[in-house]
Specification:
Elements: E1 2-4, H1 8-19, E2 26-28, E3 36-37, E4 40-41, H2 48-51, E5 55-58, H3 63-72, E6 78-79, E7 82-83, E8 88-89, E9 94-95, E10 100-101, E11 106-107, E12 112-113, E13 118-119, E14 124-125, E15 130-131, E16 136-137, E17 142-143, E18 148-149, E19 154-155, E20 160-161, E21 166-167, E22 172-173, E23 178-179, E24 187-190, E25 195-199
Length: 202
């Protein structure tokens, strides 16, 4: 397993991979000053020859950056997952390639999570939720049952989304918000109850 991106987010992914017994071959990062991270070699910009046929995780927290990187990489790249063994995941949940699930998170029955998503530390995703690709559920955020989150959106730390809510694409739910009605695409919502405060363009 290689990681692309040698930052704080990569550190947490490394912990998850180590805890689950997966071998980490090293990292890639465009910053020439970064030579190692937590004792693992950082080899510079992504090199398909060095990479070989191992699995890759895009270890960058920003959703739109992960998408841009995936779109630029060769189609034949195999993406892995990092699932911390302390996470509680229903046998009836599913998630796509490149998705990471951090320590203490809970993913309940009939949850469907897309590709290259982040379910961060102690986040809770309840039954029948649908998360599209490149979504980030931040630490200690709670999605109640049957919530849907569109591509690239982020639910901030400690936010709560009540059952049945639909969050559009590339929107941001601010930390601590309580979402009680649907959220359109490309907006920032905050507060309790959460309200749209501005449009955002990624």
């Amino acid at each position: 397993m290689y990681l692309l991106g040698a930052s704080g987010h990569a550190k947490v992914i490394i912990d998850s991979l180590k805890a689950s017994g997966k071998k980490i071959s090293g990292l890639f990062d465009d910053n020439p000053e970064v030579k190692e991270l937590l004792g693992y070699n950082v080899f510079g910009s992504f090199d398909p020859i060095l990479f070989g046929d191992e699995e890759l995780i895009i270890s960058i927290g920003l959703n739109h950056i992960r998408k841009k990187i995936v779109e630029k990489l060769p189609d034949e790249i195999r993406y892995g997952n990092a699932i911390h063994p302390s996470a509680i995941i229903s046998d009836h949940a599913s998630f796509g390639e490149g998705t990471v699930v951090m320590q203490g998170s809970v993913i309940q029955s009939s949850v469907s999570i897309g590709k290259h998503c982040i379910i961060n530390t102690t986040a809770s995703v309840d039954h029948d939720c649908l998360l599209e690709d490149y979504v980030h559920i931040s630490p200690n955020a709670t999605l109640c049952g049957a919530v849907s989150v569109g591509e690239g959106s982020q639910v901030g730390a400690g936010a709560v989304v009540i059952p049945g809510i639909k969050i559009g694409k590339w929107s941001l739910v601010a930390a601590g918000a309580v979402v009680m009605k649907d959220v359109p695409d490309n907006v920032l919502v905050l507060g309790n109850p959460a309200r749209v405060v501005k449009r955002i363009n990624i």
